[in-house]
Amino acid sequence: MQLPSFALCLGLAGLAQAHMEMIYPPPFKSKANTNAGSDVDFSMTAPLEAGGGNFPCKGYHSLFGTKEGAPVADWEAGGSYNMTITGGANHGGGSCQASLSFDKGKTWSAIHSYVGNCPAAGTSTFDFKIPTDAPSGEAIFAWSWFNQIGNREMYMN
């Protein structure tokens, strides 16, 4: 079973220049995403709003199915893949999840949890596997993070 295309949303860290962000696969509106065009979010490292108003993906999941939300990866069910996170202020790590949505961001299924030391400072690659029973078709992949030190915040691209 093949998942022919993934639009990516992916969760990350805190304040704009000093914190963490995912660079592979590139999320919606990321400066690393060639589909973003000129509408780039240079604050990809900002947390989600405390009241949840921009959950999921800072609201960028609405780009799914548009030119700006075109797929950036081609993954198959049962396949092993990775994501790359980079930055400097990881707030003592914390815990992260890799998740998939098959309904344009309405519901999410965690496919891998990284408990503790996630993300590491600097650049790190995190491995995960797409479940063998994942449905075929387009999906949104997300990386989310709950920091260990500092304000209790959720980060997600």
Describe the overall structure.
By secondary structure, the protein is an all-beta fold. The chain has one domain. Helices cover 0% and strands 38% of the residues. The protein is built from no helices and nine strands. The chain has strands at residues 2-8, 20-24, 73-76, 80-87, 94-101, 109-115, 122-129, 139-147, 154-156. Strands 1, 3, 5, 6, 8 and 9 form a six-stranded mixed β-sheet that branches. A three-stranded antiparallel β-sheet has the order 2-4-7, with no helix packed on it. Strand 5 and strand 6 (109-115) form a beta hairpin. The two termini are 27 Å apart. Keywords: Signal. Residues 1-18 form the signal peptide.
Number of helices, counting only DSSP H or I runs of 4 residues or more: 0
Q: Low-confidence parts, pLDDT < 50 over ≥5 residues?
A: 4-17
Total beta-strand segments: 9
Order of SSEs, N→C?
EEEEEEEEE
| Average pLDDT figure | 86
